[in-house]
Every structure is written in C-alpha cells, then in structure tokens.
Amino acid sequence: MADQSSLQTPGPPAPLTPPPAPKIGLTAELPPVEGEEDIVPPLQGEGGEVTDISQLSTAQLYQLNQEFLDSTVDPTRPLIDDAQPLAVLRAEYENGSPSFVQQIDWLEGKGFHAIRRTRGDGDCFYRSVAYLFVERLFFAPDPPLAVTQAASGLEATLQLLSRAGFEDIVVSGFYEPLEELIKNIIQPVDGQVLTLNGLLQGFQDPMTSNCIVTYLRMLTSAKIRTEPDDFAPFLIHPELGEMMDPRTFCEVNVDPTGKEADHVQMTALSQALGLNIDVAYLDGRSADGAVEFVQFRNAAEENELPMVLLYRPGHYDILIGK
Length: 322
Description:
- The protein is α+β, with helices and mostly antiparallel strands and 322 residues long.
- The chain has helices at 58-72, 86-93, 98-109, 124-138, 143-164, 168-184, 196-204, 206-226, 228-231, 246-253, 263-273, and strands spanning 80-85, 114-118, 276-281, 292-297, 307-312, 315-320.
- Helix 5 packs antiparallel against helix 6 (168-184) and helix 5 (143-164) crosses helix 8.
C-alpha cells in the first residue's frame, strides 16, 4: 500500500485529446482488453486439440482475447446497436465454447432476454452507462419528475469537476450534449421531443456519443482525484504491479479515450452519478453455469433498479431483461 503522505496533490487534468491507446495488461478486478467477441474462435491447445476455456489461466485468457480482438475489431460497427435476442449471442458460442453457452442459458433462465452491443473501442463501459442513464428516464413512473431530477443531478456534477481542476470552458462542450438529450425527453426541440429511437440515433452519432463518453471519463477522473485517500490503495499499475498516485493513474488510465474501465473506474463513476450498476461476469469459468454479478450500489434510493451490463473478457455490452 502506498504511503498516503507521498501522494501528489491532484492538479489540473491532462489534455483530453490523447494519442491512440496502447495495450495494457491485467488489472486487479476484471480482466481488461476492450474489443469485439462476436465470433468466438476455437481454443487450440498443443497438438491442435480444443482446450476448455476453464483450464486457461487469466493471463492465457487475456492473450487469447487480445490476439483475437486485434484481428477482428470492426470499426464500422455502430457505437451502440439495436437490441438483439440473447439467443443470437448464444449461437456465436455454440461451436467451441460450451461453458459460455451454459452461462448464457443461466442468464436466460433468470429472465434476461436481450443484449444491446456497443463498439469495442475501449469506451464501451462509459458508453453503455451513459445510454442507460438516459434510457431509464423513459420508463420512470413519472418521466417529467425523473428528467428534472436527472438534469439537476447532472448539473451538480459540475462542482465535482471544478474541485478537480477542470476548466469550465473545457467541460461545457462535453457536458451539454448529455444535458440536452435528457431535457429533450420532455422539452421539445424544433417541435419534437426525444424518442427511444432518437436516443439511439444520438448515441450512434460520433460527435454526440463521444462527447458524452468524455464527460463520463472526466467525472470518473474527478472523483478519483478529489478523493485520493479512498482510491489510492487500489491504484496499481497494470503491467508493473506498482502503486500509482491518483493523478498519474487518471492521466494514464481514465482521461484518454480508448482506455478500458476496471473496478476502480466503475466504482468512481457509479459514485459520481449516484448509480446502481450490476455487471454480469460472463467468463466461461463457472463450474455450474452460474454467472457472477459484481454490484455497485450508490443510488440515493436504496431500491432503485440497477443498470445491468454484460462483461465478457475485454468488453461491456448492455444486458436487457428483468
């Protein structure tokens, strides 16, 4: 554990126009690597035999995913897609990954029936959360009240960014697209209110979608920077295994686009926005097919339904169901 007295005082954040993100290694809680896994390759062991994924070490699983994803990432995939039956995902795993199929069947048995895919560009966690943050307002018992509360809560996050040293002139350009989408649910723009189809189109638009992703990254960074004592014990360099101070961790792993989210980032963002998030961990390692859920509980209302994400090694999608 790092000596708290040696941590740097959080300073102004680094510029938010990063170079392409390099690959990084394993992190503490969830295996990293962002990418697409729409087609699952046979797992070949020595001699060419198919290997049970449960027999692979975390490092081997990481390497397998990285090599496969590097060869298959499709830049033409929508940033966020229409919902598809979970059976479509199941079919992709039928030829060679029975442990994944078993876990998908388990999810279906628990009432989950569809998946909404996001592009595997390193931003899929943030994009999924942002989409669900707005979509849930359509299904609230009192949508106008829910929109008003969400807009007010979002506005309050500006204070967090200010405390972390983010300049207002920089923040506003990333904040406003999300604010406008939320308010458009009840406030017409050019005579029209936002529909679910319009929400999907908004998140498929690169400028709108990426601005919103950047704002959520800024919130995540600000939370870590302004509460260093809470996060410092968990800020470990993914390759070197060394402790990192909060500012450096954010500059390397949070601020740049294309950097995948791990447990620390998920905790910080769920706290910053006051969200309940469940992450279904589909890794093919369960002996009985059960899927582990990693839970984050930070909503003001204890009984607020969580957003549900599906995590496969290296990627987050939206899981739809109960």
